[in-house]
Amino acid sequence: MKRNEKTESISKVQEMMENASAIFLTDYSGVNVEDINDLRNQFRDEGVRYKVFKNTLAKRALDESGKYEKLADHLVGMTGFAFAGENPVAPAKIIKKYFDKNKKLSLKACYIENEFFDGSSLDTLALLPSKNDLIAGIIGSINAPASGIVGAINAVMRDLVSVIDEVSKTKAA
User: Fold this and answer.
1) DSSP labels for 69-138?
2) CB-based contacts of 128: which residues, under 8 Å, 6+ apart?
3) Mind listing the pLDDT tens digit for each residue in 144-153?
4) Which residues, given as ranges, of the chain have pLDDT below 50?
């Protein structure tokens, strides 16, 4: 690899790190090409970019960026990078699903929103709700008191109508 190609690769890694909400390092040893392509499609469907870089170039990119310093220790062996977009836990869910099925593609380490997690945290990370699920839960919580007030007002009006109807029936008799 020529010097300018190395520089391009380093800048590409840095750009992907800057634009990612989370970075996951995986050990893809033992995973065949067909499965890697399938995983890439799953990642792509969730807005995640999965790339493989030379460990030395990735280390240099990490050093130059000054971020994610704990990832450098995990850049040994066959390492794949999953760069998450808007849903930072999507890679964890995909990695866990594949690992549970095939016992391959293990998580080495990751950063989610500047928080470091080692590979043993995969089960916990995969259980986290997605950003859309959290937003839906918050909106549901905000709407719950309003719907309760509307229900209470409707109940009072219904009871008032019932009372007026009963009074009119008693006066008519």
Assistant:
1) GGGGGG--SSEEEEEE-S-TTHHHHHHHHHHHHHS-SEEEEEEETTEEEEGGGHHHHHHSPPHHHHHHHH
2) 89, 92
3) 666 666 676 7
4) none
- Confirm whether pTM is higher than 0.85: no
CA distance 70 to 2: 28
How far is it, in rounded angstroms, from Cα 40 to Cα 90? Answer: 12
In degrees to the nearest 10, what's the CA dihedral of 66, 9, 120, 112?
A: 60
Length of the chain: 173
Q: What are phi and psi of 25, to 5 degrees?
A: -105, 130
Q: Which amino acid is at 136?
A: A
Decide: residue 12, CB within 10 A, 0-12 exposed, 13-18 middle, 19+ buried: middle
CA atoms of 83 and 81, how far apart (whole Å): 6
CB 46 within 8 A of CB 130: no
